Amino acid sequence: MNSTSIRQLEFGNAGDVEPFIRATGVVPRRWRDALLASPAQQQDRWHARFFFVRPLLRLTIAMTWIISGIAGLIHVPIDSMIQLIGIGIPPEAFEAACLLDIAVGVAVLLRWRTGLLAIIQLAIVGAYSMVLSIIQPGLWLEPLGPLLKNLPFVASVLALAAVEQDR
After folding, report:
1. Are the C-beta atoms of 107 and 161 separated by less than 8 Å?
2. pTM > 0.90: yes or no
3. Do 82 and 12 share a structural domain?
4. By CB neighbour count within 10 A (0-12 exposed, 13-18 middle, 19+ buried), where does 105 fall?
5. Do residues 66 and 106 make contact, with C-beta atoms less than 8 angstroms apart?
6. Least reliable range by pLDDT among 31-35, 47-51, 155-159
7. How many Å apart are CA 17 and CA 13, to the nearest integer?
8. 22 & 62 share domain
9. Rounded Cα–Cα distance for residues 28 and 9 (Å)
C-alpha cells in the first residue's frame, strides 16, 4: 500500500451500500473503524517485519550449506584430511559430509519438513563443531571465527524453524 491508497481508504466509499448489504448481508465499515475494531497486536507487527526477512534467512542458510558442500568437494585441505584420518574418519566420510551439506541446503530451499530439518541441521553443526574442536581446538580463537560462526548460524536455523512453522 502507498500513501494514496491509504488516503482513499480513509476517505471512504461514496456509493450506495444498500444493494451490497442486501446481496451479501455484510455491513461495510469505514477503514478507520475496521482498524480500531481490530488493532494490530505485537505478533502482527512481528509477522510484518519477518515478511521479507524470512525468505532472506532461508536463502542465506541454504546457500551456506550448498556453497560449503561444493567448496569442500572442490578444495580439500590436505592437512585437515590427514588430521581426520588420524582420528579415524576416512576421506569418504568427508566427501559424504560435503554431499550431505548440499542436500541439506536444497532441502532448506524447498522448505522440506522444517521442524525435522532444523533438528538435522543442529545435529550436523554440532557434530562438525565437535569433530573440529577435537582436531583443531584453536579454530575457536581464530580471528575470522570459523567455529565461532556456528553460534549465530545455529540461532539463524532456530529462528527460521520458528517462523517457517506457519504452514
Report:
1. no
2. no
3. no
4. buried
5. yes
6. 31-35
7. 9
8. no
9. 12
The phi, psi pair for 14, rounded to 5°, reads -95, -5
Q: What's the alpha-carbon Rg for the chain, to the nearest Å?
A: 25
Spatial CA neighbour of 84 closest among 96, 67, 68, 99? 96
Exposure of 116 by Cβ count < 10 A (0-12 exposed, 13-18 middle, 19+ buried)?
exposed
Question: 24 lies in a domain?
Answer: yes
Structural domain range at position 23: 3-37
Residue 167: pLDDT band with limits 50, 70, 90 = low
Give me 115's grid cell. 521442524
CA angle 163, 127, 89 (to 5 degrees): 145
Is 47 part of a structural domain of the chain? no
Confidence category of residue 166, pLDDT binned at 50, 70, 90: low
